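Narrative of accomplishments. A recurring question from our advisory board has been how the design workflow behaves on a single, concrete structure rather than in aggregate. To address it, we present the structure tokens for one chain from the evaluation set, followed by the sequence designed for it. No filtering or post-editing was applied between the two.
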């Protein structure tokens, strides 16, 4: 391709709407243009990158036995009502009506469609396993679309669904996809980490997220400094603090006036104790009830863990007025002792505390010498705390470290959640009817493109990994008025393309500085500059975008040297 013939509308100024690096650079380098909030047009350079990512994904899915199909974007509400998700999924679901006033949605995911398809096609255990996937646009009405392609309302996704006879067979399918995803992101040239995660609205038991490591990542992940343990903060666990000391005397419960002392830090200072001696009591409102969540004063509640523990659909901190009404005390003075008509969920660390301090459910008063089981008994004891860097690994007790990541893929063991709800059954070898065991596996294609930029950029622009770059090399004649330079540039352009190196020639009648800036902005891995020395001495300048390493290479050796360099980029 020739730059003069391509639509590459580069911008010198940073667009005001752009917040993160990938958004800024995708706009500036002429890859995307905004059509509406969270909705973008992919220009030719972006399409080339997306096609390469898709091809890598297809090859790895097919290698594991995946079969590509294509399902409808518009899905009838009946499917979602049958699975029970029509009212659960929430306002992110794009809903619409046809001319007959029938309800539909734009597909944010395709569990219902694929399960109902296979309900009609699978009859026997002999027809499994099946691995079916598609690459398609998805739609989610994000409350606040932001960060360009990182959190949009329309995006490109690969979703694969596995169908197996039992959990053991599902384990095999899950491991196949784990390996395939690892290969995909390795081939894309990305630094990433698979982490344990929460399954969210998709549901299921086991799930892993594949996180591209980048300082700008939305998600925090914790990983072990010694072993392979890694999890996002929503899922991370840690070795709990030391257990109950049976030799420590339990003192008598006592109420103390504490005017103006609300926070764990204030209360700890007032009593001259560590914040770890405070029982922090947080009141939450679910779709069914109010709940008191107890953690140590130096800990925070992990709301995802709490939501899953309760089996609730929604969870939010209670308003001050509600806290006063259900506990009889102002926020900051609530505690578990004597708390009536409200479910109490305690973290295991709370149950190991001796002579703790907690709110007295009376404004401006606290209890001292609070002891679990003696002074209160929670209905549930579960890990509901937010784990932080520096705590011990749950597997080997080494220190947990923190990094930022961008989720580009996630794999789920769904089990029989959808097959049971939608009646997708099969007959086993004994003729007994059983529900199909399922898994689902997604990769954000457009998000992977953005994540690659978040991980690979500098002050001059994008630095594409060679495997997914829109072009692997750009040939730039310094002067388009010099016939000798133009001839050599055209020769190299043709030779490289014929050798399988995707090359673009910048044949514009622009100043060299403009061409160089655009080459860095777009992020071509290699830049081949044909200047006066090419005509006079038969050598050209080859510059690597990532390292900025430059060398003079004879024109006759450019093809082989470029091919060799690309294997390292």
């Amino acid at each position: 391709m020739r730059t003069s013939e391509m639509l590459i509308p580069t911008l010198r100024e940073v667009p005001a709407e752009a917040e993160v690096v990938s958004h800024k650079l995708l706009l500036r380098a002429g890859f995307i243009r905004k059509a509406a909030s969270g909705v973008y047009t992919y220009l030719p350079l972006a399409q080339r990158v997306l096609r390469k990512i898709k091809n890598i994904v297809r090859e790895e899915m097919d290698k594991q036995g995946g079969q590509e199909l294509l399902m409808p974007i518009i899905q009838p509400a009946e499917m979602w009502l049958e699975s029970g998700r029509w009212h659960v999924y929430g306002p992110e679901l794009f809903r619409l009506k046809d001319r007959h006033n029938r309800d539909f949605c734009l597909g944010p995911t395709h569990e219902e469609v694929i399960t109902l398809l296979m309900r009609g096609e699978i009859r026997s255990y002999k027809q499994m396993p099946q691995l079916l996937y598609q690459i398609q646009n998805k739609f989610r009405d994000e409350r606040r679309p932001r960060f360009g392609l990182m959190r949009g309302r329309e995006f490109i996704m690969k979703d694969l669904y596995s169908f197996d006879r039992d959990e053991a067979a599902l384990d095999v399918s899950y491991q196949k996809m784990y390996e395939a995803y690892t290969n995909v992101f390795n081939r894309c040239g990305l630094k990433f980490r698979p982490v344990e995660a929460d399954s969210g609205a998709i549901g299921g038991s086991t799930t892993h997220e594949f996180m591209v490591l980048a300082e700008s990542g939305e998600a925090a992940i914790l990983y072990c400094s010694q072993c392979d343990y890694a999890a996002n903060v929503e899922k991370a666990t840690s070795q709990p603090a030391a257990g109950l000391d049976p030799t420590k005397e339990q003192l008598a419960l006592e109420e103390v006036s504490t005017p103006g002392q609300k926070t764990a830090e204030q209360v700890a200072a007032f009593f001259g104790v560590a914040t770890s001696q405070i029982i922090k009591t947080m009141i939450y409102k679910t779709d069914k009830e109010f709940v008191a969540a107890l953690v140590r004063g130096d800990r925070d509640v992990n709301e995802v863990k709490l939501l899953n523990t309760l089996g609730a659909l929604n969870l939010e901190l209670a308003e001050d007025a509600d806290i006063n009404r259900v506990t009889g005390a102002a926020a900051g003075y609530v505690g578990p002792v004597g708390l009536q008509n409200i479910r109490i969920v305690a973290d295991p660390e709370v149950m190991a505390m001796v002579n703790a301090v907690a709110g007295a459910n009376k404004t401006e008063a606290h209890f001292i010498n609070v002891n679990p089981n003696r002074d209160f008994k929670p209905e549930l004891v579960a890990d509901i705390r937010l784990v932080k860097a520096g705590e011990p690994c749950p597997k080997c007790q080494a220190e947990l470290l923190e990094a930022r990541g961008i989720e580009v893929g996630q794999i789920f063991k769904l089990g029989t959640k959808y097959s049971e709800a939608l009646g997708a059954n099969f007959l086993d070898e004994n003729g007994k009817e059983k529900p199909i065991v399922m898994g689902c596996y997604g990769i954000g294609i457009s998000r992977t493109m953005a994540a690659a930029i978040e991980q690979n950029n500098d002050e001059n622009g994008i630095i594409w990994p060679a495997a997914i770059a829109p072009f692997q090399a750009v040939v730039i004649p310094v002067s388009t008025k010099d016939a000798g330079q133009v001839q050599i540039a055209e020769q190299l352009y043709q030779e490289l393309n014929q050798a399988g190196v995707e090359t673009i020639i910048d044949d514009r009648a622009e100043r060299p500085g403009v061409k160089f800036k655009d080459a860095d902005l777009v992020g071509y891995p290699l830049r081949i500059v044909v200047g006066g020395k090419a005509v006079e001495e038969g050598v050209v300048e080859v510059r690597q975008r990532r390292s900025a390493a430059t060398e003079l290479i004879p024109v006759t050796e450019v093809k082989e040297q470029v091919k060799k360099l690309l294997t390292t980029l």
